[in-house]
Amino acid sequence: MEENQKQCVLFCSPDRLIQKIIKKRLKSEGCKVNVASNGNDALTLIEEGKINLMVTEEMLPFKSGFEIIEICDQKDIPSIIISDSDLENKILEAFDLGAYDFIDKPYSPNELVVRIKNIFKHHRA
After folding, report:
1. Is 98 exposed, middle or buried (0-12, 13-18, 19+ CB in 10 A)?
2. 56 with 79: CB under 8 angstroms?
3. SS3 readout for the chain
4. Alpha carbon of 17 to those of 14, 22, 30, 55, 95: distances in Å?
5. How far apart, in whole angstroms, are the C-alpha atoms of residue 84 and residue 72?
6. How far apart are CA 101 and CA 36, in angstroms?
7. CB 3.0 to 4.6 Å from 69: which of 43, 45, 77, 79, for a disulfide?
8. What is the full per-residue pLDDT of the chain (125 aa) written as tens digits?
9. How much is the pTM?
10. Residues forming beta bridges with residue 55, ordered by sequence position
11. Contacting residues for 8 by C-beta, under 8 A, at least 6 apart
12. What is the per-residue burial (b if ≥16 Cβ within 10 Å, else e) of 53-66?
């Protein structure tokens, strides 16, 4: 991800082990990474204005991933939502709220990195 070395990804998940795995994987690709465990912390980091991409789980304490991606869309921050629901209405809702991508659980960290690279390639933040 050489051209994206200065890109900052915010990864939001209540699961600390997943946070650690994804953070390590993204850092190995040259990304800066911030993590949040809940929707309120994610919104605080978004408001600081240093985020180039949001990756969030749907189910979060305090604010849902859907609320987060809607705010990201208003700020022109691309987002990916991760969900254990593959129901079509949930997928369509995510895209209607501004998500750039939707990933079903379980997912591969390698797949997530490829999707992030693709967004960075097409969305110059």
Report:
1. buried
2. yes
3. CHHHCCCEEEEECCCHHHHHHHHHHHHHCCCEEEEECCHHHHHHHHHCCCCCEEEEECCCCCCCHHHHHHHHHHCCCCEEEEECCCCHHHHHHHHHCCCCEEEECCCCHHHHHHHHHHHHHHCCC
4. 9, 9, 20, 16, 27
5. 21
6. 19
7. 79
8. 444 447 999 999 999 999 999 999 999 999 999 999 999 999 999 999 889 999 999 999 999 999 999 999 999 999 999 998 878 999 999 999 999 999 999 999 999 999 999 999 887 64
9. 0.91
10. 11, 80
11. 31, 32, 33, 34, 50, 51, 52, 53
12. bbbbbbbbeebbbb
Strands 53-57 and 101-104: unpaired
